[in-house]
């Protein structure tokens, strides 16, 4: 408990946030890394997974991508890319080995996005799909008006999982002299400064919880099934009391 109190006191020291390459700057860097890699992963994975789910093909691909993504350590991928084809040159605000870091995190984000999007499309009741086809809907109309809204909850769950996982994993960028909060934790280990190590870990954990909560809230708000239920409840008139 004493170590935890000391770490909290270290966090409340404003100089640790405002100094050059302090916590505030590292926090912005890690948010940028996380959102950029997640955006690239979503742009690559969602169209492919939704298209395969719409066609009813590629189930083996979705499962294998998920399994491979869980089996291959992200740190190993980062090291291989930074010393290999992508190099360790600076990439604007993404810092040293920025391209290798972005690609590694993007690959780490692919499995939950692909798997959830594909499963969301395939778990739609086939009777609903056939009824929509019977009404004369084209393939694009079926996808846009029926399949995508019904699959949206699982799609958003995959994005939420990828967001939190990528945020927590982005700290490894510091191991190749990249940006982010991992630098605080690494500096704490190098200097045997437990306050810095625990303080950096607390910031990463709290932001991860905040992201999880915010993403879950957004997921609930945009879920078409929940939204339809809320509208139905508001429109249903209250039952009048029976006359004596």
CATH superfamily: MetI-like
Structure annotation, total helices: 11
Number of strands: 0
Number of domains: 1
End-to-end distance, in Å? 65 Å
Order of helices and strands: HHHHHHHHHHH
**Average pLDDT score:** 86
**Structural class label:** mainly alpha
Strand % is: under 5%
Poorly predicted ranges: none
Major β-sheet profile? none
Helix percentage range: over 70%
The name of the CATH topology is MetI-like fold
**What's the CATH class label?**
Mainly Alpha
How would you describe this structure to a colleague?
By secondary structure, the chain is mainly alpha-helical. The chain has 11 helices and no strands. It has helices spanning 2-11, 15-18, 23-55, 59-71, 74-83, 98-122, 126-134, 139-169, 182-190, 194-222, 224-235.
């Amino acid at each position: 408990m004493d170590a935890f109190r000391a770490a909290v006191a270290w966090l409340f020291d404003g100089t640790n946030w405002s100094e050059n390459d302090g916590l505030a700057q590292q926090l912005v860097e890690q948010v940028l890394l996380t959102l950029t890699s997640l955006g690239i992963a979503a742009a690559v994975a969602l169209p492919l997974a939704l298209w395969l789910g719409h066609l009813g093909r590629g189930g083996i691909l979705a499962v294998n991508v998920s399994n491979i993504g869980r089996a291959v350590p992200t740190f190993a991928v980062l090291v291989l890319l930074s010393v290999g084809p992508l190099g360790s040159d600076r990439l604007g605000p993404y810092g040293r080995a920025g391209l290798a870091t972005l690609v590694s995190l993007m690959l780490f984000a692919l499995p939950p996005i692909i798997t959830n999007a594909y499963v969301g499309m395939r778990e739609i009741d086939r009777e609903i799909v056939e009824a929509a086809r019977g009404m004369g809907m084209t393939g694009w109309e079926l996808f846009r008006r029926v399949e995508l809204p019904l699959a949206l909850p699982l799609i958003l769950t995959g994005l939420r999982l990828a967001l939190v996982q990528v945020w927590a994993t982005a700290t490894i960028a510091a191991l190749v002299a990249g940006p982010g909060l991992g630098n605080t934790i690494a500096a704490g280990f190098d200097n045997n400064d437990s306050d810095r190590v625990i303080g950096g870990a607390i910031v990463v954990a709290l932001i991860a919880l905040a992201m999880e909560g915010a993403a879950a809230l957004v997921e609930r708000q945009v879920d078409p099934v929940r939204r339809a239920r809320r509208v139905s409840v508001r429109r249903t008139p209250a039952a009048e009391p029976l006359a004596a």
